[in-house]
Design a protein that fits this description.
By secondary structure, the protein is of the alpha/beta class.
């Protein structure tokens, strides 16, 4: 999809990104912080701050009013437009079509065959034939402008997410975006401001927040099972080498090319979102700084050496993205969150997903728990023993959900559409989207500054001090 709205001559199109090598494409360079939209956050701490402390992040003046706690408008049917019908969008459409009270009315993808396959699914599900937008990479603007769309779902390459979310809100639509919601700090602030001005919700569709284990741990944390919370950890450690070099899996090499541009954590949301929920980040606590460290970048080049033929376009690429990034995030209450990212080396899949407090600890992959007074003798306990008491009502109501990722995708879509139909406050909002994505540019800046902490902005502008509901929701009556 196009990563720039029509008339924006400063941003390269998706097609130009796919056709150029790292040396020419360079959407985000590594020569300075300006390319990340960091402003004063590009280097180490300012001279007038204490040693090791990050410079205070500027908070721009609010242009509208807060979107925290703002409900959707109630409606009997949610009319959905989908932008991007590749691997993710092409499968997620099945979940929207599986729900009552939801209609898929419009589809957009510059690859006509993908849009046509998706449109056939809509008709097969018994819904009217959707409008299809395949004219060019900017055709998503026309989808957003439709008067019969309530919610826009974006599942495209990362560089296009910001412009598409922006177009949706400016057209009066609520929007949900796959991870990450944007790649620059100034873009995150722009989405916050747009959401507040337009009164439209902009949500990071973080499916891992709806995993069964994650939702159970969340309810246990809120019930005090772990005592006072102290630390947590999350990750995206997933060997993607084969997929990133595949000529067919992604629509071009866009995902691999990000490893030629940024050194930091390119995909923090899956690990960060759930742990932020456990700690009520933006709902009584907030994250304040991030310090990141990265290994050398060797894995993708070694994989290319072993698997790619001479003359393949990938041989023109220079990879700078750290094979593994490790970040330490601190909160206003003094808690610590460890984040990891590694898609370039061989290892089993893990999001780590751990939480510790004064009464004990949970660790995932595999799931295990040790809390007092239930356990003793330094032996892990059975996490499944807590299912009956602490499983979220969504998982009790949908014990065997359809769809991918163990059912979390379906639970996420079901809950979002439920909130829209019933006129409820969404489980997460634009402030969560910005917070969970901020490690993308800030981890890069910290690694460049040899681990110097970078200030994470208060996207809520002080609203984080007010406790409010989130993913640990009450079942609607």
């Amino acid at each position: 999809m196009n990563d720039a709205a029509p008339g924006n001559q400063d941003s390269p199109s998706r097609r130009s990104v796919l056709r150029t090598t790292a040396g020419a494409a360079g959407v985000v360079g590594v020569s300075g912080a300006a390319g990340l939209g960091l402003g004063p956050l590009g280097g180490a701490a300012a001279a007038d701050t204490p040693a090791g402390a990050p410079a205070e992040a500027p908070v721009p003046r609010r242009q509208g009013s807060t979107m925290a706690g703002v409900p959707f408008e109630q409606r009997s049917t949610v009319r959905v437009g989908i932008i991007g019908l590749g691997n993710r969008g092409g499968s997620m459409i099945d979940l929207f079509l599986a729900l009552s009270g939801v209609r898929v009315v419009a589809l957009c993808d510059p690859v006509k065959a993908k849009a046509e396959r998706a449109a056939a699914k809509v008709v097969k599900a018994g819904q009217p034939s959707p409008a299809v937008y395949t004219k060019d990479e900017g055709d998503y603007v026309n989808l957003c402008a439709r008067g019969d769309v309530d919610f826009v779902y974006v599942a495209t390459p990362w560089e296009s997410h910001f412009e598409m979310a922006k177009a949706a809100m400016l057209a009066g639509k609520h929007v949900g975006v796959e991870c990450p919601v944007a790649m620059r700090l100034d873009e995150l602030w722009a989405l916050v401001d747009l959401s507040e001005r337009t009164r439209r919700h902009c949500m990071q569709l973080e499916n891992c927040c709806y995993g069964r284990n994650e939702m159970r741990v969340l309810r246990m944390a809120h019930a005090g099972v772990f005592g006072e919370l102290l630390h947590g950890a999350g990750a995206y450690n997933h060997d993607l080498r084969e997929l990133m070099f595949s000529p067919t899996y992604y629509e071009g090499p866009w995902r691999r090319l990000w490893h030629t541009r940024l050194r930091g954590d390119l995909y923090p949301n899956h690990g960060f979102g759930p742990v932020a929920n456990y700690m009520d980040v933006n709902r009584g606590d907030r994250v304040v700084s991030i310090s990141s460290f990265g290994t050398p970048s060797l894995g993708l080049a070694e994989y290319r050496e072993a698997n790619m033929p001479p003359g393949d376009p990938s041989w023109k690429e220079t990879y700078i993205g750290s094979d593994r990034t490790i970040s330490m995030v601190t909160t206003a209450k003094g808690r610590v969150i460890r984040l990891e990212h590694d898609v370039s080396t061989p290892h089993p899949y893990s999001r780590i997903n751990s939480l510790g407090g004064t009464k004990g600890v949970f660790e995932d992959y595999p799931a295990r728990i040790y809390v007092e007074p239930d356990h003793k003798g330094h032996q892990w306990g059975d996490f499944s023993a807590y299912a009956t008491e602490f499983d979220h009502w969504l998982w009790k109501e949908h014990a065997n959900p359809p769809g991918g990722h163990g059912g979390m995708d379906y639970i996420m879509v079901y809950r979002l559409m439920q909130c829209m139909r019933l006129g409820l406050v969404p489980d997460f909002d634009v402030y969560d989207a910005a917070t969970w994505t901020a490690p993308v540019p800030l981890s890069h800046a910290s690694i460049k500054a040899k681990g110097a902490p970078q200030q994470i902005p208060d996207f809520t502008r002080g609203e984080w001090r007010k406790p409010r509901s989130g993913v640990d929701s009450v079942k609607p009556r």
